[in-house]
Amino acid sequence: MKTKLLLSFAFALLFGTTNYAKQKSNNDIKKLISSYKKDIRGPYYRIKWYCKDGSVRDSKDPCPDSIGGGIQHASFKESALDLRKTNHLFFGEILASLNNQDFLDSENNYSRLKQYQLGKYLASIDDGWVLKKGQYYRGSVQSEDEEAWGKQFFETVLKDDSFVNNNYYLVRQALKDIPHNGDSNIAQQMRSESKVLAEEIPEFMDIRIKIHGNPEKTDIYLVESFIKKNASKIDSKEKKIFDKLLQTMQEFYAPLNYKTIANEISKIKDKNNVLSSLNDFLNEDKSNLSAKDIVIKITENLDFLRYNITLFNNSKDRLALLDLTNQLEKILLIETQKWQPATLEETILKTQTLTCASYATGLVEAWEFDLIKPIYATTLLNDKITLKDLNSLVTSARRVVEWSTSLVKANYQETVNKYADFESFAYGFIDDRIRNSVTLNLGETVSKLNTFASDISNVNNNVMNISNQGAIRGLNPGYAFGKLIVVDGNPENIEVNTNNIYIFQKPPSDLKPVAGIMTVSEGNLVSHVQLLARNLGIPNAALSSDNLKSLEKYANKNVFYAVSNKGNVILKLENDMSDEEQKLFNKKERTKNMITVPTDKLRLDVSKIINMKDVKASDSGILCGPKAANLGELKNLFPNKVVDGIIIPFGVFKSHMNKEMPSKNKTYWQFLNETFNKATQLKKGNVTEDEIEKIVIASLKELHTAILNIDLDASFIKDLKSNFSSVFGDNLGNVPVFLRSDTNMEDLKEFTGAGLNLTLFNILKEEKIINGIKQVWASAYSERSFKWRQKYLLNPENVYPSILIIPSVDVDYSGVMITKGINEGAENDLTVAFSRGAGGAVDGQSAETRLITDNSSFLLSPARQPDYIRLPATGNTKKYYTTFNKPILNYNNINEIRELASEIREKIGKQNDDNHAYDVEFGFKDDKLWLFQIRPFVENKQAKSSEYLNAISPKTDSNKEIKLKEKI
């Protein structure tokens, strides 16, 4: 399936095709930003009076009291207003006269509100950004009007219980950015000012890193000492920035006036027992409290406030309490740095406390936190812990860090990506939000806990010489050698090279084959990218954002990379490789696992449409590909769970490939074979593989284009219409369908081919179905498809696509099941990943991933995909947004999944007389399960059995006991 195609459909439906056509290019937007930065008015036009009756007057003609008066602020240049219409971009936003719902922009996932936050961030790190000169345009923005608007905005939107509960994190973040109470985002200001200074004075970089990564009050002394030591080198402009930074730091680390807060709390109108604990804490003498005591008490109150916030009926009370949570969180972040646990027990307690704080500040949902809590509760009741239980606790704690960072990304990534296309500074926004949260210190604490457990387990990573390697964990075993490429931003437009090792924030959904992968956001364990990596023995590991940044200095250097079967990771420079590691890369070792796809059984004489019910699994690779053959088998085995379908067999494709190719004096098939014959001759002539690949890809591109324009036989179209009507009960063009590519080079014993070719979603119109058939055929010759096949198959040119056509099922949620544990769990367990809407989990969405056993369902990661698609009866797709306050799969779904797995093992496993695990795609519509595909789950046996990988896998005694009082 092609994510970019789906997104373009969704975007057009969401914003309208007219506006989409008129969109400004990124280059146009860059030019606009540049012009605004140089303009003394920025994006503003002139000062106007905005009257209560809706009229607008010139700056020297105030609104009279007789019509209710008004407010004064700048109007916008036509270019800025036009950008709002064409690109939904809002630069230099002025709040004072906005409509609440327009600014909230809920139909676009709160895009306008988030853009305001991102704009404030960009202004803080780039001297005003689009207002570089315009920030001094007198009268353009009136701070008192902005604050008054912010206050009424929050008092309005906070009336909605659902909005508060579903968007708790976003609400608290918005309170930091939208003026409403004389407040400001001091933490962000402190980081921004230190960043500016580090760019001006490289020697200040170490202190900047300290302020960003491990902020403490003693940083004030570091800055003061730096100024004193470098006084002669600091110019007047830099001195002003240093003075401002010190002022900001003093304000940030100033003691919280608890009595003032208590006085504010006393004004809360809704008197209930929720505030009794909070008042006790605020009025308590804290002189004898340790940092540990304060962190625990603040966390308890933040937890209580989040859980009970909607018990306060007055939105003004809610606003005051939510502001208080931000004040308390600020103190929590400072005191957390001071709390330095000495023992294993206290480190676990701190981890437990900060996990609770993650929930309390909105980074983890209530249902997710409820699943994690019992792990800590039982651990701290004893005086010892086994190594197995300690490693399990570390894994759970590390997940909370990942869930927290992924929630920040889920809220803001779409907006950041949109801006990053024309403003690279935007990438820093998410990192800034994560650093201004408990996630930063929770990650450090979990890393220390992991290091302790790893030392005892002998599971130690060896990743260059970077710090906090405990955050790195292997996903797929394997080893690789190649150039290291670090991609910190959006990966979608990155052109990858087969021989390189890539580190991504998130892998692109249509990733071409690479030597090795490391990702900050793994997506999910059963996405097409993950399955292909597992299938081909491509080493794959997860790491933290900080790890990625630490590895940037090794970019473009040759490295050795390995992931063991136990998940420990090695990454070293070429010069540091051992003799044994160098021997792994001789040609004999790397090519012995290549396979040839048999073509002798192909029935190319069958050139008529086939009813899916008339094929079975044994027809795979003969009449059609495995998707259609297996689904036909499944229709007979699970008649109520599988839709009807029709198949365009290999023979139809081949008969069209036998047509003469325009302007070539040869058939399409002859052109294809000549391309590969030429490649064989070039290889004999010692032409490099890279050069040969370029020549082949160029020819395949030509073939791809030609197939898109091929004339379909009239007899074939008549046959298609007839079978469509008889099987689906209506004429072609009246029933929305999926067109699924289904080649003879998929689901082989040692090669999955998952997701390499095109699937078209929910196509309705006859013309689009006809053109879609050609698109699906042509996709077999795309660069990505060819490169993956070439990496594993000796005859990648012998690809024959069939097409499976099935009616669309507008599922509520969908996903993938592997009938075994992957990375965790046992052979009889189930690894399941689900996303909302259609096409769930297979394209690398941040899916709800679970390990389902006979009697439990263990959450590996919650869904963090904010958008999803549905399949309307009118065709195409429609984009929606979601929140994460509820799990996707319910209790009945999980039981039905267990039953399905049991049936598959009984009906298919025993029928084939094998113990294969299976890769199953399915979905739920109104709690009814619909089955879409079953294929063998293919793992790379060479990687799993490699002597080298076994040698670097640690040997551990999981029953070893450790005293909780042990020093850490």
UniProtKB/TrEMBL annotation:
It comes from the Bacteria. It holds the Pfam family PPDK_N. Gene3D superfamilies: ATP-grasp fold, A domain, ATP-grasp fold, B domain. Keywords: Signal. The keyword Signal applies. Residues 1-21 form the signal peptide. Residues 624-947 form the Pyruvate phosphate dikinase AMP/ATP-binding domain. This is PEP/pyruvate-binding domain-containing protein. It comes from Polaribacter marinaquae.
